[in-house]
Amino acid sequence: MNHTTSATANDAPRWPTPDFSRLEQPNTARIADWAAGNSHNTGVDRYFGEQVALLLPVGDIARHNLAFATDVLHHALDHGVRQVLVLGCGMPTGPTWRHQATLAHPGIRAVHVDYDPIVTAACTIARQQHSNPASEILTADLRDPDAILASTAVRSTLDLTQPVLLLATAVLHHVPDEHHPADILARYRDALAPGSYLALSHLTPPDKPEDHLRLSAALNLYRSIEQPLTPRSRRTLSRWLSGLDTIPADHHDGPFLHCVAARIPDADVQDQ
C-alpha cells in the first residue's frame, strides 16, 4: 500500500475553537474589570455594569477590593511568604495582576486560577509581559479544590508544606449556598501549612434599609445573566476563618463589601 505524506485541508491539525458566544453575554470577570476602570471588557459588559452602577457604588467596591488585596499581599510577603494561590483571578488587570512586578521577583511562586477559558487566555498573554518562570495560569473551577490542589500547575509550582497566601477576593459570592462555599474554603484551608494566609472579600448586606432595596435590585440584574450573587453577613465570613489569627482589614470595608484576612497559626500554637 502506498502512503502519501502530502497534507490536505482535512489533515490539518484541528486547534480548539474559542467559544466566542461567551462574549455575547455579560461576564462577571469583565464587569469587574470595567468597574475598576480597565479595558478587558466588551460593550455588553459595560452596558450591564452601567445598569448595576445605578444601584451600587461599583467603582468604590472595586477600589476597596484592590486596596485590600494589595495590603494582604504585601503583608504576607513582608512576613516571609513566597507563594500565592489566587482563586478566581479574573482579567489580567485584577488585584494580583497589578502587582506582577512584585510576584515576578526571584523566589516568588504564583498560580492564578479561573474557570473561564477566555479569562485564562487573556492572563496567559499578560504573563508574557511579566516573565516569571515560577507562575502558572490554571483553567479550573474553584468549587473543586481537590482537582486544583492535585493539578500539575499547583504541584509543580507551589510547595504546600510551606506557607501560602490564598487570595479569594470578590469570588466566593459567586458560589451559591447549595454548593457549600464554607466547605470548599475549608478544604483549601486544610491543605495549607501553618504560617499561611487566607484573604476574602465578599458582597455583604448593608446596614441601611434603603441600601437593601438597591442591593436587591442589583441581585435581580445578575440573575438575569445567570451569574447570580449571594451576599453573606460579616459574621458568616468571619466564622469561615474562625480559629485563625485575624489580620485587621476593617478599614477596607464598604457598605456592600466585607474584607477579612487571617493567618494559620504555627503548629506549636495549634497543638496547645
Averaged pLDDT, please? 84
Instruction: Encode the helix/strand succession as letters.
Output: HHHEHEHEHHEHEHHEEH
Under the CATH scheme, which class?
Alpha Beta
Helical fraction equals: 25-40%
First-residue to last-residue Cα separation: 76 Å
The CATH architecture classification is 3-Layer(aba) Sandwich
Strand content: 5-15%
Q: CATH-wise, what's the superfamily?
A: Vaccinia Virus protein VP39
By DSSP, the count of extended strands is 7
CA radius of gyration? 20 Å
Question: What would the CATH topology be?
Answer: Rossmann fold
How does the overall form come out from the CA principal axes?
A: globular
| Largest sheet descriptor | 7 strands, mixed
Protein name: S-adenosyl methyltransferase
GO molecular function, one term: methyltransferase activity
GO biological process, one term: methylation
Pfam families: Methyltransf_19
Question: How is the secondary structure organized here?
Answer:
Layout: H1 28-35, H2 43-53, H3 58-78, E1 83-87, H4 100-103, E2 109-114, H5 117-127, E3 135-139, H6 145-149, H7 152-157, E4 165-169, H8 181-191, E5 197-203, H9 209-224, H10 234-240, E6 245-247, E7 257-263, H11 267-270
Task: Explain how this protein is built.
This protein is of the alpha/beta class and 272 residues long. It has one domain: Vaccinia Virus protein VP39 (Rossmann fold). The chain is 38% helix and 14% strand. It is built from eleven helices and seven strands. It has a seven-stranded mixed beta sheet with strand order 3-2-1-4-5-7-6, with helices on both faces. Helix 8 links the parallel strand 4 and strand 5. Helix 1 packs across helix 2. The protein is globular and about 45 Å long. The chain starts with 27 loop residues before the first helix and ends with a helix. The N terminus is likely disordered.
